[in-house]
Amino acid sequence: MDPVIIIPTYVGNRRKTQTYNVVATYDHTTPLTHQGELPRCLTSLVDCEIDVPIILLVVAEQGVEREASAKIRDITAAYPQLDITVVDSDTLSQFYSRADQLGLASIREGISLTGYGAVRNFGLAIAAILGYTEVIYIDDDETIDDRDFIKNAVYGLGKLTQKGIPVLVKTGYYTDRKGKWLSSQKNAWYNHFWQQGDLFNEWISKAMRGPRLSRSNAAYGGLMAIHREAYRRVSFDPWIARGEDLDYMLNVRMYGSDVWFDNQWYIQHLPPTERTEAQRFRQDIYRWIYEQRKLEFSKSQIDLLPIQPQSLYPYPGPFLEQNITRRVFLTALLRSLGRPNERKGYIKAAMAARREAKAYAEVFCPKYFEFQLGWPQVIGILEADHQLQQVFGGHRIGKERVLAKIQDTDLIVESASSPLGNQQPDTQSAIQPPPTSDLLDFELDIDALGLDEK
């Protein structure tokens, strides 16, 4: 095991962003003049004696990139106990320059410091370049109070179940300040067509009562562990408006594997309260309409496993069905009445559901599958390049160590059409089974897993 923690941190001129750029709108950004949540997060890592490398991705509002980088470097300087590498816009420019030389100029839209999916792809690319076997994603508005956090993060990762299913991607759960893990979304009258909180609670309550690891219907981007054999094969979608974590779960399923839920791995999520709900719901409208279109588009691709919304009940299945446009439109209108302080924002969101969001999905959904098709080759080129290793911290890792890792289990496939897992019984898995001693040595509800197989 050789894990790395990657933390995106979002910096801008103000807490509430007013941009209507679909992918460049974030749930929260920290103003340049505020310390924000990052110091609290880093303090918790020190308190829990986390001793794995940490990569901080500085996602800055356009025009303040240099100031944002300086601010984050000032913050990290107060934590000499942590092994932190700050990656900013200057680092990204160096990355692009070398990628252009390697013939990879086309990756700029999919690997960047703009948009949830592209930012996470940048983190995966860096992990590949530096040879890390596990990526652990957390967010800057979270804290850790579990000294076994890393142990729990990598628990079972890279192993096979007794049915020969590889565990390559994991998620856990969030708690609030009171240690509660259920969604607190109110079941108000204006959410009549949008019972997201209740449906999520129904799913997670069952998962929390089940075996430690079970197939997950959801994923938390701020608590996700991805094994190298997954991140070398499957990318995040750089065109998803938000919810790139759950979208990654769908991507992984399409390519033959699963995200697993670990009901003993958790993190405390303490987001700032200052945020515009109408703008966030507008992003959700783009997100769910995009997801529904994505599932429909994937059915026409012979190399992908089709995903039926019914297989993801109680959550998120109902939000992946064809009536999603009507549901988000009606919900936006009802919220414009029930939340008069954000009426204009919800009306704009309703209009987006009828026009822009559908058009956006039609245009950008096919682009993801085109980008994903070349992802394994891109990663294969990046991780073997000595100059890029120097860009991201050559003093930490030598070329020989990276090449040794690649040669040890070189499973890069020629195209993304090769299955990531073994859910297609007539297709040989691209992942070779490890020795018998590497089979999962912890309890799994095998009967339940068999019933859950689709």
Draw up the topology in text:
Blueprint: E1 3-12, E2 30-31, H1 38-47, E3 54-60, H2 65-76, E4 84-87, H3 89-101, H4 116-130, E5 134-138, E6 142-143, H5 149-153, E7 169-175, H6 196-209, E8 213-215, E9 223-227, H7 228-231, H8 244-254, E10 259-269, H9 277-298, H10 324-338, H11 343-354, H12 356-383, H13 386-391, H14 399-408, H15 446-452
Parallel strand pairs: 1-2, 1-3, 1-5, 3-4, 7-10
Antiparallel strand pairs: 5-9, 6-10, 7-9, 8-10
Helix pairs in contact: 4-12, 9-10, 9-11, 9-12, 10-11
Describe the structure.
The protein is α/β, with parallel strands linked by helices. The protein has 15 helices and 10 strands. Strands 1, 2, 3, 4, 5, 6, 7, 8, 9 and 10 form a 10-stranded mixed beta sheet that branches. The radius of gyration is 21 Å and the shape is globular. It has a domain of 309 residues: Alpha-Beta Complex (Spore Coat Polysaccharide Biosynthesis Protein SpsA, Chain A). The longest helix has 28 residues. Helix 9 runs antiparallel to helix 10 and helix 10 packs antiparallel against helix 11. Strand 3, helix 2 and strand 4 form a beta-alpha-beta unit.
What attributes characterize this protein structure?
454 residues, alpha/beta, Spore Coat Polysaccharide Biosynthesis Protein SpsA, Chain A, ten-stranded mixed beta sheet, 15 helices
Instruction: Tell me the distance between the termini.
Output: 31 Å
Share of helix, binned: 40-55%
Under CATH at level 1, the class of the domain at 3-188 and 210-276 and 374-429 stands as Alpha Beta
CATH fold type of the domain at 3-188 and 210-276 and 374-429: Spore Coat Polysaccharide Biosynthesis Protein SpsA, Chain A
- The number of strands is 10
The secondary-structure element order is: EEHEHEHHEEHEHEEHHEHHHHHHH
**What is the number of helices?**
15
**Radius of gyration of CA atoms, rounded to a whole number:** 21 Å
Largest sheet: 10 strands, mixed
Percentage beta strand? 5-15%
Instruction: Give the averaged pLDDT, no decimals.
Output: 86
Low-confidence residue ranges: 395-418, 423-454
Q: Which structural category do the helix and sheet elements fall into? A: alpha/beta
